[in-house]
Design a protein that fits this description.
It is a single chain. Strand 9, helix 8 and strand 10 form a beta-alpha-beta unit. The longest helix is centred in the C-terminal third of the chain and has 19 residues. The C terminus is likely disordered. The chain folds into 3 domains: about 120 residues, Response regulator (Rossmann fold, 3-Layer(aba) Sandwich); about 140 residues, Rossmann fold; about 100 residues, Homeodomain-like (Arc Repressor Mutant, subunit A). Helix 4 packs across helix 5 and helix 6 crosses helix 7. The protein is of the alpha/beta class and about 400 residues long. The strands form 2 sheets. It has a 6-stranded parallel beta sheet with strand order 2-1-3-4-5-11. The chain has a 6-stranded mixed beta sheet with strand order 7-6-8-9-10-12, sandwiched between helices. The chain is globular and about 80 Å long.
Length: about 400
């Protein structure tokens, strides 16, 4: 009688993952990668970018390594010989498989959004010469020039004193003050856009009426902390993590991945208050819209708005339809909903409290109006926002 040989248990592939968790984008990548890794049964060791890669490679030799854009020092040769994948940093010219955003598409989506608002004076904002920032800045300027827009010098200047990487309040305030108004500003990431919004507020410049501001990443926390809430080009970070995992899977299956480059296109622009403007030439309509948005916490009527704009109700209605294509009360409802959306995203207030603070009589009326304008009830919207904050998607 023959005895069956015991089958050798399969050893789960070791995957080294070096990526920080401090930002929404990196958490989105991590969640996307982890979903595939768990499904495949990989053994994943996760470290931050401050990790000693030489020590890790020697003590825990991985079958594959996925590394973000900020590791200290060069990658050890042992990791390069493994199935190496760079995420959110293009190292394909170095022979490393790379998964990164399509920077050209990101810049062009931002430009399209600003042009659609009627803006023709544009500029850019970045704080350093990171490859992603340089690429987004350059592609935006090139596309804007092709579209015939008027480009003002961006904040970044090589060799400027003091260095542009520092928050120099006077220099920033002067730069914003000297921009033509209204001006569309493309900030190369959400965190930098929030800097622009902060200095706009301290210099009494209105966002979006004077400066229409758009960022990149759609980091829910950054976007909702910005005042007013920030429009942003959404990058599918979760999908980027999945794409990195699929490259690892290909390498583990024996396929050559060295030098491959996977560019992930942005999803869409998530429009929020920071670009909710039309370049309004009519001074009466512009004054009325600004007053409505400044008083959105109150129950407003058309006569109240007309009085604030120093005109008659009939004249105001005619101008609103001619310039904006909507009624005064439609603009009032939009302002109430935008304020409610901000409160849902940034506070723990109950729905009755939010209704009261955003100009609605009660929570039921808020729910009806919110669903009509946004497409989902307020509670569902709040859960989605906090889910996105956790995922970084």
């Amino acid at each position: 009688m023959q005895t069956k040989k015991a089958s050798t248990p399969q050893i789960a592939p070791r995957i080294l993952l070096v990526l920080d968790t401090w930002s929404g984008w990196s958490r989105g990548v991590l969640r996307g990668f982890a979903g595939v890794a768990h499904e495949r049964g990989w053994t994943v060791l996760h470290y931050h970018s401050t990790a000693d890669l030489d020590w890790l490679a020697a003590e825990w030799p991985p079958a594959a390594a996925v590394i973000g854009p900020d590791p200290r020092g060069p990658w050890p040769a042992t990791l390069r010989s493994a199935a190496a994948v760079s995420v959110n940093a293009d190292r394909s010219t170095e022979g490393v498989a790379s998964v990164c955003p399509d920077e050209k598409e990101i810049a062009e989506r931002a430009l399209e959004h600003l042009l659609a608002a009627g803006l023709r004076d544009l500029t850019t904002f970045r704080f350093d010469a990171s490859p992603f920032a340089v690429a987004r800045d350059l592609h935006f300027q090139q596309a804007a020039a092709r579209a015939g827009a008027r480009l003002s010098p961006g904040w970044w200047e090589d060799g400027a004193e003091p260095p542009r990487t520092r928050e120099d309040p006077r220099a920033l305030a002067a730069w914003l003050h000297d921009l033509p108004k209204p001006c569309g500003i493309f900030a190369c990431c959400d965190a930098w856009a929030r800097v622009v919004a902060r200095y706009a507020r301290t210099t009494d410049l209105r966002v979006p009426e004077d400066l229409a501001l758009i960022g990149v990443d759609n980091d829910a926390l950054e976007c909702e902390l910005t005042a007013p809430p920030l429009s942003s080009v959404a990058v599918p970070w979760h999908g980027m993590g999945q794409a990195a995992a699929w490259l690892v899977q290909s390498a583990l299956a024996g396929d050559a991945i060295a030098g491959k480059r996977v560019a992930i296109a942005p999803d869409r622009v998530i429009a929020r208050r920071s670009t909710d403007v039309l370049a309004i030439d009519d001074p009466i309509v512009a004054a009325a819209v600004a007053w409505i948005r400044d008083h959105a916490d109150r129950r407003l009527t058309v006569p109240m708005v007309a009085n604030a704009a120093k005109t008659t109700r009939q004249r105001l209605e005619r101008r609103f339809r001619a310039v904006l294509g909507r009624t005064v009360m439609h603009e009032v409802r939009r302002a109430h909903i935008e304020l409610a959306r901000r409160l849902l995203s940034a506070t723990a207030l109950t729905l009755p409290e939010i209704a009261k603070q955003s100009g609605f009589t009660n929570a039921a009326l808020l729910g009806v109006a919110f669903r009509r304008e946004i497409g989902v009830p307020p509670g569902v919207y709040r859960r989605r926002v906090f889910g996105a904050s956790a995922d970084g998607d």
